[in-house]
DNA sequence: CGGGGTCTTTGATCAGGATCAAGCCCGTGC
DNA sequence: GCACGGGCTTGATCCTGATCAAAGACCCCG
């Protein structure tokens, strides 16, 4: 089934041998038989560590399904998530030997991976993959900067609302729907992962979700399934101006 | 005089017609006569706005001297700096019509700018500029992520110490010295800009600098000139582990 | 030299979120 | 059925950094 994400030029990935609803962000659009020759698929369980910060980097590839996180840890154990990897996002980078962050599977994750040496050699021969990587990296940079605004200046309540907006939009994009009133989706993150994302503690995350529920901004069914009765109200709670919304 | 930044492959820029101690990050290494044909120089005073978020993007180019900032503002006026542009950093991006952030001169700034349309056309013809832009963007992304760790998890005191470490390192790199005990440098930012950078208020910035001064970690001469008697102690205060130091 | 403005420092108080500490919900295995 | 454990929620208290307020330091310009 063909897929089109709005800001990315990703297409379906017909040659991928496994069943998945998402996009292999390189195989599809690149149309390079050479990529097929060096790719394999790997699956990780929720909680598995895909790569450790500071260790030699072994994996280059893109997320086919599931959610993974990038995070860094301070000396005393405080942790901050610095990247959220959703289907079609790229993991690892070429020509770098050491992984800069911990990469952890937040749900079951399937990756389309490439042998690093072969991948680097291919980059040297086929420049137009580099153009695509540049665009993807610029998108990530924009997302990182919106995230910095959130971390530096938003209240706990605004942070939670912003995260719900992001997940709702990505989820809608994945199913090629518009976000609007009454949208429902499942949170792909535990309370702990949300806290790491937002620079909060799990208690504060829990309290603020409860507060938004009591205020009627969100409806929770169980602990992970969310319905947004009025998307405009959620946007108001997120603290963003008109539509300078969070990218990615 | 030739310049070499450690993590970037920048070189001197002999053909630039103006006197500057820093690097034109594209003209130099690209060795493209075509770039010369479409470049001009522009100077801005401290406080000048170089581009407004949401307005059509007019400028593409790199910082030759001075310091500029990228920032975003929430609806109620809270502001967060999301990028710090030092000599050799690139401003603007190709193939994007709308500027994503406010760009402001923090000191007097000189830019080496290119006509946007001509620059985009050149990118289409000469792929290897794209490779260089990719590397620069990846460096920026790394810096943004270290910054997220700072914003999300560091205390005010650690934030100030981290900023001093960053400025000391960039300053040392610019003069091809090693950072070490007794280094001195001048802060290129006002207290307000530091607060925007760190997600703090100016009062807290001022208090924490005073605290570090009283603790003997830094010496201040006037309000902008800093000496670090013991760089290791400053590093300890920054909260970073061993040497996972802040990139860029 | 003096005056006004901007930038910075310092003080007093307040509040948002962290921390510490139970308890709850729900799936799992015995 | 029941105990166990992991993830989540709620409560009480504390503390860091924001806010409100005022006074110094510095600078440009007459």
Automatic annotation (TrEMBL), chains A, B:
The keyword Zinc does not apply. It holds the Pfam family cNMP_binding. Keywords: DNA-binding, Transcription, Transcription regulation. GO terms for molecular function: DNA binding; DNA-binding transcription factor activity. Residues 154-232 form the HTH crp-type domain. GO terms for cellular component: cytosol. SUPFAM superfamilies: cAMP-binding domain-like, Winged helix' DNA-binding domain. PROSITE patterns: HTH_CRP_1, HTH_CRP_2. PANTHER family: CRP FAMILY TRANSCRIPTIONAL REGULATORY PROTEIN (PTHR24567), FUMARATE AND NITRATE REDUCTION REGULATORY PROTEIN (PTHR24567:SF75). This is Helix-turn-helix domain-containing protein. The lineage of its organism: Bacteria, Pseudomonadati, Pseudomonadota, Alphaproteobacteria, Rhodobacterales.
């Amino acid at each position: 089934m063909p897929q089109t994400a709005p800001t990315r030029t990703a297409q379906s990935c017909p040659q991928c041998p496994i069943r998945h609803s998402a996009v292999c962000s390189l195989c599809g659009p690149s149309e390079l038989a050479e990529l097929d020759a060096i790719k394999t698929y790997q699956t990780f369980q929720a909680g598995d560590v895909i790569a450790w910060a500071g260790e030699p980097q072994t994996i280059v590839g893109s997320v086919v399904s599931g959610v993974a996180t990038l995070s860094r840890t301070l000396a005393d154990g405080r942790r901050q998530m610095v990247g959220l990897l959703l289907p079609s996002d790229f993991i690892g980078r070429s020509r770098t030997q050491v992984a800069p962050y911990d990469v952890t599977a937040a749900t079951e994750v399937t990756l389309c991976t490439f042998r690093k040496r072969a991948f680097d050699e291919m980059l040297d021969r086929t420049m137009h993959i580099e153009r695509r990587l540049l665009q993807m990296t610029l998108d990530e940079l924009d997302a990182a900067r919106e995230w910095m605004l959130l971390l530096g200046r938003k209240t706990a309540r605004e942070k939670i609302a912003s995260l719900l907006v992001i997940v709702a939009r990505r989820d809608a994009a994945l199913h090629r729907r518009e976000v609007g009133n009454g949208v429902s989706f499942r949170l792909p993150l535990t309370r702990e992962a949300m806290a790491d994302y937002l620079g909060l503690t799990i208690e504060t995350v829990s309290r603020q979700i409860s507060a938004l529920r009591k205020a009627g901004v969100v409806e929770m069914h169980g602990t992970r399934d969310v319905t947004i009765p009025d998307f405009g109200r959620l946007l108001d709670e997120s603290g963003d101006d008109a539509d300078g919304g969070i990218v990615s």
